[in-house]
Amino acid sequence: MRVLVLIPGPLRQTAGNQAKVEVDLPEQATLGTLLDHLAARYPLLDRRLRDERDVLRRYVNVYVDGEECRRLSGADTRLTPDSEVRILPSVAGG
Amino acid sequence: MHLLAIGTRKGLWLATSEDRESWSLSGPHHPMAEVYATAIENRRDRPRLLVGTTSSHFGPTVMTSDDLGATWQEPDHAPVAFPEDAALERVWQLALTPDPEVVYAGTQPSALFRSEDGGRTYSLVEGLWKHPHREHWDAGYGGQAIHTVLPDPADPLRLTVAMSTGGVYRTFDGGASWEPANTGIKANFLPDPYPEFGQCVHKVSWHPAVPHRLFLQNHHGVYRSDDAGATWTSIAGGLPADFGFAMVNHPHEPDVVYNFPLVAADHRFPPGGECAVYRSSDAGESWEALRNGLPDGFWTAVMRDALCTDAAEPAGVYFGSRSGEVYASTDEGDSWRRIAEHLPDVVCVRAAEV
């Protein structure tokens, strides 16, 4: 299945200067699978999103079809064909 | 050209000067990233700037620039990364060594990393990470971090590190084994005020030519060691207060050392709000206040790496404040001028000729 990932402006440089990235995934893939696929293609993007334990950084939000993944099942959130995954920096900094 | 790198809580500024009197400021580089560590390696064909940055959104990294900040590079994969059970929160110190390719990084959580490619990528010094004391090291307000790394310039197998909290540790075998070196340093926040380790050391400094003599600013207490850290004695008697963060040696005179006293842990301002660097010319036996050109009404503080010297003659001394001001002296501290203001909180400064 093919999933669309929307990359926010501050991170596009780490993703080949793209605002949208399409990722082909096996059926039943999870958000964690998607992030692993992204990491293989864009390692610098990945370490902006996750630390070395593959934990999503606290002030990075990832919305799966409009719902933030922490309100779903986090990295175990199941993706569906044509899912849209939107990465957004949350409110942080002073 | 003289270069002063100014790390703040919202980016890096670079000040340059031909005469150390008139300075030009550029920045912010890495806007909104906290820059707690910076270093200037000026022995390469092209000077290299190193910075440890932490984005509140996108995490920590180390970047380098070989064109004085015009462009910055970092590897695709994390240059400083922990093994499975921890994650890098911040790089607190980037320490140069006699070999320009070898750079050490002190980190939060407390660990030491070593680079052999000029500070681009690092590997964990496992001897310290696996130390049985590690589970007992605690976090101070700023986090639990190694903020001081002193590689012995005469012996690459000898290093001294300091952490908050935890105290001072040293190795004589290149990092394979480490021993605490805190005898005589007080921990006034623990039931046993003189533990083997666990002190909240704020900064340790030395002159590279005299690596057995160490100067230390503690969380209350100012100390000197004349035996490479084995034992410590107080040199706070001539200071107006024994609290503070910063401590740095004169670049040419091993017995000359600078400090920025603050009243106390619960009153983190210079005494009377009078901005003053203190200088000792006799290894801490006596101190003099250096105030010529520094303001009153200075209700702010100088952080542990926000006081530095350059290697020029006469020596330059620089410090930055949490209120975003930077002061410079080109006569070893006798007089000062403000060279930057209205910056974010200054957390580190480093100066060098490039």
Task: Provide a brief overview of the structure.
The complex is a heterodimer of chains A (94) and B (354). By secondary structure, chain A is an alpha+beta fold.
Structure overview:
The complex is a heterodimer of chains A (94) and B (354). Chain A is an alpha+beta fold and 94 residues long. Helix content of chain A is 19%, strand content 24%. Chain A has a five-stranded mixed beta sheet with strand order 2-1-5-3-4, with helices on one face. The N and C termini of chain A lie far apart (40 Å). Helix content of chain B is 1%, strand content 40%. With 354 residues, chain B is mainly β. In chain B, the strands form seven sheets. In chain B, strands 3-2-1-27 form a four-stranded antiparallel beta sheet, with no helix packed on it. In chain B, strands 7-8-9-10 form a four-stranded antiparallel beta sheet. In chain B, strands 11-12-13-14 form a four-stranded antiparallel beta sheet, with no helix packed on it. Chain B starts with a strand and ends with a strand. The model of chain B has no long low-confidence stretch (mean pLDDT 97). Chains A and B meet through α2 of A and loops of B.
Helix percentage range of chain B: under 10%
Residue-averaged pLDDT of chain B, rounded?
97
Low-confidence segments of chain B, given as residue ranges, are none
> Proportion of β residues of chain A?
15-25%
Order of helices and strands of chain A: EEHHEEE
CA radius of gyration of chain B is: 19 Å
Report the structural category of chain B: mainly beta
Strands of the largest sheet of chain B, in order across it?
Answer: 3-2-1-27
